[in-house]
Write a structure and sequence with these properties.
Elements: E1 2-6, E2 14-20, E3 23-32, E4 35-45, E5 51-60, E6 63-74, E7 84-91, E8 94-104, E9 107-128, E10 131-152, E11 160-181, E12 184-206, H1 207-212, E13 217-235, E14 238-245, E15 248-251
Antiparallel strand pairs: 1-2, 2-3, 3-4, 4-5, 5-6, 6-7, 7-8, 8-9, 9-10, 10-11, 11-12, 12-13, 13-14, 13-15
Length: about 260
């Protein structure tokens, strides 16, 4: 394994880059308050040969923590006539998205689902006697996604591409600060609902339109809400909301109102 070191920046004055046997490892090193601060990124092929694994880790104040663990697994073709590729996406060791890509003739379609998932990213933790003071963050996800693309190549003027995309997604991010004594936890936090709703689009474009610089036919549907959220506090299992806002709603179909 060959390693190259140089000085690209003041924050991380040492960068280590290594490539060997289809593996890639990058490490940024510096010091914070006299203690080592290291961010490393590694990407390695899975032992099965059907995918890759990516890991991001942080070492600060002498402690190491894995920030994210991401796997992409690709399955084999299940039929010579209808190839199907199965995919699983992981973050922090948690499977986030499961889906399949299907090729049927010249049509490619994808269907995936996100099970109710919550991924935590601890930021800070400091013990004061029997009490632990901490700040946590994280994201929560749920939904499904489907997409298809169908190119139709025939006569030059009539060749066209049609596609459909539909997503039903709820995604939110939160930050909490709390104090914990034994099994009792009390704190305050905030949550932002990045997106919530069902939307999609259908498009069609012919080769003649593309050559003429004409915009494709695009028809949207559904509605989504963006950036709603609330500020809350909790004591044990009791939770109370201090402030809540609805965010912004967008409708992509004249027959669907945000007021519904």
């Amino acid at each position: 394994m060959k390693r190259i070191l140089f000085l690209p920046a003041l924050l991380f004055p040492m960068l280590s880059f290594a490539v060997a046997n289809d593996s890639t490892h990058v490490q940024l090193a510096s010091k914070l308050l006299g203690r080592p601060l290291v961010v490393s990124q590694a990407m390695d092929p899975l032992s099965s040969g059907q995918g890759v694994q990516s890991q991001t880790a942080l070492q600060m104040f002498g402690k190491s923590k894995i920030l994210s663990l991401f796997n992409l697994l690709t399955g084999s073709r299940t039929s010579s006539n209808t190839p199907i590729y199965n995919t699983n996406w992981y973050i922090g060791g948690t499977r986030v998205l499961t889906g399949s890509l299907v090729q049927n003739g010249s049509t490619y379609s994808y269907n995936g689902s996100i099970a109710p998932t919550q991924i935590a990213f601890p930021i800070f933790s400091y013990p004061v006697g029997p009490v632990v003071l901490a700040v946590d963050s994280g994201v929560s996800l749920q939904g499904n996604l489907s997409a298809s693309v169908a190119p139709d190549v025939s006569l030059l003027a009539s060749s066209q591409v049609t596609g459909d995309l539909q997503a039903n997604l709820t995604a939110a991010a939160y930050v909490e600060g709390y104090a914990q004594f034994l099994f009792m936890k009390a704190g305050i936090g905030g949550q932002v609902d990045a997106i919530s709703g069902t939307t999609g689009a259908h498009f069609n474009m012919t080769l003649a339109q593309a050559l003429a610089g004409t915009q494709p036919q695009l028809q949207g549907f559904g509605r989504v809400s963006l950036l709603g959220g609330n500020v809350y506090g909790y004591l044990g299992s009791m939770k109370m909301s201090f402030y809540k806002w609805s965010g912004k709603c967008y409708s992509f179909d004249p027959s669907v109102s945000c007021a519904q």
